[in-house]
Specification:
five-stranded mixed β-sheet, 22 strands, kinase activity
């Protein structure tokens, strides 16, 4: 069946993901290959000290993204997009969206990027004997309670961004288990919120006299492959204001971007993992057994089908690299050169490989925002060097690439060195890996492990979400998600692997030791911001 036939017969599957800087849509065919795409660029706003996106910007972004997808379909195939086999929605995980009974948002959306929940996260971690990160929904909720925010009593529904979008499109208050594991810890046996923790939380806040219990306001937990409702007439109009898209399309459980990254890299089996490097970065390792103890820098979440995963999440990754590349662009343009940004990135990334393995002594701190793994509530991007360091373009770029994955290195050392976690395959994806080999080689040196990148790495989260939607309607009876991905999507493709040299590993180790000592400089910059 041609791509045009697939679309005309309503057999294409759509995945949409709301990322930090782009909203992307990917349409796939019966072989799970992309056949059309759409996108919208947006940015978060810092309002009253908190990172947010407005409801208006969310829907304008989603609608524009879908409109560009419709245009791509029309441009390529000369037909209108009217019906689909299935739809899935994903978004940046965690955060806080609280609504009243009239479906009105009570306070502006608080994203994963906010680090104002320290007191709540610490108290809940102690109460649950489980690491509760700053960005998790339960941390935001309890921080609002601690801080005496008046809106808490009016909460009727507490959602993440993807759960909110799904709710508006289907009327269903549900979310995928991977996304749910970023709201409240999951019991791997029941594939639901941990009931003991639910009861502990309800007991903790009972003296406040709120009219709700925790389960009343959280979305229902679903696993990949379960039905999660259908696109309503209202939802179809929301997604496609032009009115061409039909209602009644099945929708799979919404997911967080961590879950879609696992699907997109075929990393849902035990002893597999993936590393996503974009605006933020995170590694996901599917565990064979529980860790020996809770760690503040390691989150326990799940795959889209509910298997426990050790996650190291870093708030910062490529933003400072992007800022520096833009400076080089301005410099070239000031000298009369027309700049191709894609080629400029490639050139500078390739130049980094010519630098010294230890970056000549240079260090780069890419902290646009706070970084919980290294204990920083706020960020101050900076380059640090001493007079005797080798300050060259190659070392400068290599230091920035090292800095982008330095916090990942710190967190993953606990897994690989202390907990002796074993990994058969670790796959990278995201913008950091766009230039062939460079990002792979840097990350391989950081983790002292072979890193694979697939040709589909650039498809990213929206493709992963489309795969989860395809699993809903195209999997065989009783076929596991891992088998579906192995047999119907990747068919043995494990990507291209890069193994680090001893010199590269030793160079990164030297860098990271200096980096950890230099964190005091970053801390001083934060403390003396005025």
């Amino acid at each position: 069946m041609t791509a045009k036939d697939t679309i005309q017969q309503g057999k294409a599957v759509l995945g949409i993901e709301l990322g930090s800087t782009r909203i992307k849509a990917v349409l796939i065919d019966g072989d799970n290959a992309p056949i059309a795409q759409g996108s919208h660029t947006w940015e978060n706003q810092l309002e009253n000290g908190l990172w947010t996106y407005s409801i208006k910007s969310i829907w304008e972004g989603v609608q524009d993204c879908y409109a560009t997808l419709r245009k791509d379909v029309m441009d390529q195939y000369g037909i209108e997009l009217e019906n689909l086999a299935a739809i899935g929605v994903s978004a940046m995980m965690h955060g806080y969206m609280a609504f009243n009974k009239n479906q009105e948002i009570l306070v502006p959306f608080r994203t994963w990027r906010n680090t104002n929940t320290g007191k709540a996260a610490a108290r809940l971690s102690e109460l649950f004997n489980f690491n509760i990160p700053l960005r998790w929904s339960i941390s935001h909720l309890y921080e609002c309670i601690i801080d005496g925010e008046s809106h808490v009593k009016d909460i009727d529904y507490l959602a993440t961004l993807d759960a909110y979008i799904h709710w508006q499109l289907t009327g269903e208050r549900v979310t995928g288990i991977g996304d749910a594991s970023g709201m409240l810890p999951i019991d791997p046996d029941t594939k639901d919120y941990d009931e003991k923790m639910v009861k502990k939380f309800d007991t903790l806040v009972a003296p406040k006299g709120y009219p709700w219990k925790l389960r009343d306001i959280l979305p229902k937990v679903l696993v990949a492959g379960q039905e999660a409702g259908c696109l309503t007439a209202k939802g179809a109009k929301l997604l496609d204001p032009s009115g061409h898209l039909k209602a009644g399309i099945p929708m799979c459980p919404p997911e967080g971007d961590a879950g879609t990254g696992m699907a997109a890299t075929n990393a849902v089996r035990q002893r597999t993992g993936n590393v996503s490097c974009g605006t933020s970065s995170f590694s996901m390792i599917v565990l064979e057994k529980n860790l020996s103890q809770p760690y503040k820098s390691i989150d326990i979440v799940t795959t889209p089908d509910g298997a426990p995963v050790a996650m190291v999440h870093c708030n910062n990754c490529t933003s400072d690299i992007n800022a520096w590349v833009n400076i080089f662009k301005e410099c070239l343009e000031a000298n009369g050169h027309k700049v191709d940004m894609g080629q400029l990135f490639v050139t500078l990334f390739q130049t980094a490989l010519k630098g010294d393995p230890n970056c000549g002594g240079l260090m780069a701190y890419n902290y646009f925002s706070g970084e919980p793994v290294t204990g920083l509530d706020e960020g101050r991007p900076m380059i640090v060097r001493s007079p005797n360091d080798v300050f060259s373009l190659a070392n400068f770029m290599r230091a920035n690439l090292y800095g982008a994955v330095a916090v990942l290195k710190i967190g993953n050392d606990i897994l690989f060195k202390d907990e002796k976690v074993q990994v058969d395959r670790l796959t990278g994806h995201g913008g950091f890996f766009t230039t062939p080999e460079v990002g792979q080689r840097i990350l391989a040196a950081a983790l002292n492990l072979p890193i694979s990148v697939m040709k589909t790495a650039g498809e990213g989260g929206p493709w992963g979400m489309a795969l989860l939607a395809s699993y809903l309607v195209n999997s065989s009876k009783h076929q596991s998600l891992a088998d579906f991905l192995d047999q119907k999507v990747f068919a043995g493709n494990k990507g291209t692997e890069v193994t680090p040299t001893t010199e590269e590993v030793e160079g990164f180790n030297a860098y990271i030791e200096s980096y950890k000592k230099g964190l005091a400089i970053e801390q001083a910059a934060v403390q003396n911001k005025d």
